[in-house]
Design brief:
The protein is α+β, with helices and mostly antiparallel strands and about 400 residues long. About 30% of the residues lie in helices and about 30% in strands.
């Protein structure tokens, strides 16, 4: 009986749009939405529709669904997606108005303004696009801010797997942070936060940004090499997280691969379905030519190869608090001419190749220098080359 009284009182005493009125009195009729319910209540209370005055709760937000849907359609026009979701930011004052009304009349169970507005927008845009709404990891997320009347779009990241070859020495793998701004972004670095000097990362970034029409890319490298090392064979693998992509399934994947040349090339680039493991295990094959301070014998060579046949070494990190065990699968001497020795080795990824060869800083034990009992000098311009990198499954 009391609720019947409120059916009459609220429409008469408060200026509410149909949706905001109907929302306060949930209906069990599934074919009756909030706006239809509100219209029915006004009719029963003998209240005329007033189109000129703003709703006490939402202003004119609920009557602007089609206008906001138009804005969303325009914002999504250059995005590729299979599903989406729309959320909303509603001014606190509107939320408080609805809460105060419900508290005064002890109204319970009704949908909130934010939920009502978001649902109506999702339904309207979904119908226009013919694309489904999903709340679980949507391809694009749209947020409508009704206070400042703007639409924001964010796109779910895409992950790719690739391999690169490097046929030119002197190119570092990673971009260096800008020394002027220390990564914050300034005119010197074109607001990127990174130095404009050449790198594998820089060369891969440019065509991939264009390919996915993305804002930026985060790389996960499967190991690293010296800037003066070559990367041959099947190439070094990497993963990349493509942030804020507009294109999700590029048709020009092969052309992006073909664009890279002059020292760095893409061997492979493939879309993957999920975020890759952060601790990917791998093995690496390396070739190096270096200079000994004294000649060695065949017995020395035999001892070296036997010492590193399926064995392990201890590697001390920079802080030297805890050693790391790395597996060495093989070391093979390919040639020796005077004091110049060329060798090939296969080992577990993450080993410092330079220190394993030279024994610098006693950071890898045992090492090639310690087994041969010779000082070793690596050619800084041609330290070692990567022949193959194989992922462990």
């Amino acid at each position: 009986m009391l609720m019947e009284k409120y059916f009459q009182k609220i429409p008469r005493d408060y200026i509410l749009c149909n949706a905001c009125l109907g929302r306060q009195f949930p209906s069990e009729k599934k074919d009756l939405n909030n706006a239809m319910r509100g219209k029915e209540l006004k009719k029963k209370a003998g209240v005329r529709e007033n189109q000129t005055k703003s709703c006490l709760i939402c202003g004119q937000t609920m009557s602007s669904i089609e206008r906001y849907a138009d804005m969303i359609m325009k914002s999504l026009s250059d995005y590729e997606f299979n599903n989406f979701v729309i959320g909303a930011r509603i001014p606190t004052s509107m939320i408080e108005q609805e809460d105060n009304l419900r508290a005064e009349f002890k109204l319970k169970g009704g949908e909130t303004l934010k939920a009502n507005f978001s649902r109506e927008l999702n339904d309207e845009v979904s119908e226009r696009l013919g694309v489904e709404v999903t709340h679980r990891r949507p391809d694009v997320t749209v947020v409508v801010d009704s206070l400042v009347d703007i639409v924001e779009v964010s796109s779910k990241a895409i992950f790719v797997y690739g391999r690169y070859n490097k046929s030119k020495r002197g190119i570092p793998q990673k971009r260096r942070r800008c020394l002027e701004c220390r990564g914050k972004g300034c005119p010197e670095c074109n607001l990127t936060g990174y130095s404009t000097t050449d790198s594998v990362e820089q060369r891969l970034t440019i065509p991939m940004l264009s390919l996915f029409n993305a804002s930026r890319i985060k790389f996960t490298w499967i190991g690293s090499e010296d800037s003066n090392s070559l990367v041959q064979g099947n190439g070094r693998p990497f993963y990349a997280e493509i942030l804020e992509p507009h294109i999700r399934k590029p048709k020009r994947m092969q052309s992006a691969i073909n664009k890279l040349r002059d020292g760095v090339s893409l061997k492979e680039l493939t879309l993957i379905n999920k975020r890759p493991k952060s601790d990917q295990q791998f093995t690496i094959s390396v070739q190096s030519k270096f200079t000994l301070n004294k000649r060695i014998t065949k017995r020395n060579i035999q001892n070296l190869e036997e010492s590193f046949d399926e064995t392990s070494v201890k590697m001390l990190p920079a802080n030297k608090n805890k050693s790391i065990i790395k597996n060495i699968h093989s070391v093979k001497v390919e040639s020796i001419k005077g004091l110049i020795m060329q060798m090939k080795m296969e080992c577990e990824g993450g080993l410092s190749i330079r220190r394993f060869i030279t024994g610098e800083g006693d950071e890898v034990e045992p090492n090639i220098s310690s087994i041969l009992k010779r000082e070793i000098k690596i050619n800084q311009k041609m330290p070692f080359d990567i022949l193959a990198v194989n992922l462990k499954t």
